[in-house]
Amino acid sequence: MANSEELIQFQATILASIQESVIVTDLQGSITYWNKGAEHIFGYTASEVLGKTPALLYPTLSSDALQADLQHVLAGEDYLGEWEGRRKDGTTIWIDIRTTLMHSLEGAPIGFLGLGKDVTQRKQAEMLVQQQKAALQHSQEQARRLIDANIIGVVIADNRHILEANDAFLEMVGYTQEDVKSGRLDWWDITPREFLPVSMKAVQELQEQGICAPFEKAYYRKDGSQVPILIGAARFQQDPFQWVCFALDITERKDLEQRKDDFISIASHELKAPLSSLKGFTQLLIKRLERKAQVEELPLLRKMDEQVNRQVKLIDELLDASKIQAGRLDYEEEAVDLTLLLRETIEQLQPTYPTHILALSGTAPAITVGDKDRLGQVFTNLITNAIKYSPDANTVEILLATSPQTATIRVRDYGVGIPQAHLKHIFERFYRAYDSRNKVFSGLGMGLYIAYEIVKQHGGELIVESEEGKGSTFTVSLPLK
Ligand code: ADP
Questions:
Q1: Which of 383, 384, 410, 418 to mutate to test the pocket of ligand 1 (most atoms within 8 A of CB)?
Q2: What is the mean pLDDT of residues 193-205?
Q3: How far apart are CA 171 and CA 192, in angstroms?
Q4: Which atom of ligand 1 is nearest to the CA of 474?
Q5: Ligand 1 pocket residues where CB is under 6 Å
Q6: Sign of torsion, CA 330 334 339 343?
Q7: To which H or E segment does residue 141 belong?
Q8: pTM, rounded to two decimals
Q9: Where is the PAS domain (predicted)?
Q10: CA–CA separation, 436 vs 195, rounded Å?
Q11: What confidence tens digit (pLDDT) does each residue in 231-280 have?
């Protein structure tokens, strides 16, 4: 057994070498001992802190709180706590503290022994988790506020079932919270057959990209009627797959669109009738004057006839667009020689547009089945557009190429081109890449919509490539029969 001097030496070595801080203060609170661990944790050497109070180390701790804690220790209880400390370099640290009362050999209290452990890392991790929890709770509250406000329909669903829906959504579809709670509200069942493809595409987008862009569909209401809806969704869980979506009832907008479509259809019919008579009379007059050889009035009448034709063409386009919209455009089914059709179209157009050479190349035999007049309408539209939108050029190139299954017709111009941002819209009804107030090019934005639909009905594809200021290429591909 070591003697008492060795024992003291032994204790001093332990105190100096442990990683925890060992700090002793006298009863007045002045630091009287400071080990290496304390130096390591707080960054002060013993000579910098001896005689000072622990307030230097814990500036955020109020002296009243400190006094209260020390009173407990004086009463004989060890104090355990976690204090926020400050290192010499100003950084914040967290110390796990145990304070014990020290006694003299006679048993009188002579000071406090504080043992401290640096728990900064653990504390920071805990604080981070708390912050994240608070942020999550905050965002959950925000989302809940939106759901409960019932301004828009909100639905949470999985692959099949509606798991949760707010009242706004249930009102749209005529179901109740009980229906949702029963777990049998299957959203595929309430999706009308014609909207299955877009709905499947949306689910695929959700699975692959996590969100699906808003799209229009309809749901069956509980009473069997349909309600048109704009819907957009975001996946919030992959496994099991769950998503949250907003839904807006767009009945009013759809009604308005329908009224507008009906108006366009009725108005174009009403405009067409008197115009057809006007055209008939003009041509009759031309024939009569020709027969009587009264040639001096003929140029004026022919100009009149031309203008009437222009208007007939516009009204026919309006009628076609209306019919397409209502799904009522009929198509003949006949064998169409595309080479011949392109030649005829060009021969017909060339005299009217002497400013441009309509150059046809690559005339291979190409027979498709479809409506000759409608396909002719597509080529006429693409070629007249190419001429109209290339006022400073003098050529439009038309190329026909075939593969065993497909005929490809390319109409290329060297004109104004189409700005990138407009490209994906130009096949939409009434869409014009140029401001309607821009008087340079007249038009109503229907030709490409009609052409696109006709080509689609023939099982083909119409695409565009264009560069602003350089020109455009429209490519039609049609299946060969
Ligand atoms: P529009 O009656 O306006 O010509 P279209 O439906 O035929 O209607 O074309 C839609 C829009 O696409 C046009 O307004 C025009 O901005 C653009 N466009 C069509 N063809 C061309 C082309 N060859 N070159 C440049 N822009 C074109």
A1: 418
A2: 94
A3: 18
A4: 23
A5: 381, 385-386, 389, 413, 415-418, 426, 431-434, 443-449, 472
A6: negative
A7: helix 120-149
A8: 0.67
A9: 14-77
A10: 34
A11: 999 998 888 899 999 999 999 999 999 999 999 999 999 999 999 999 99
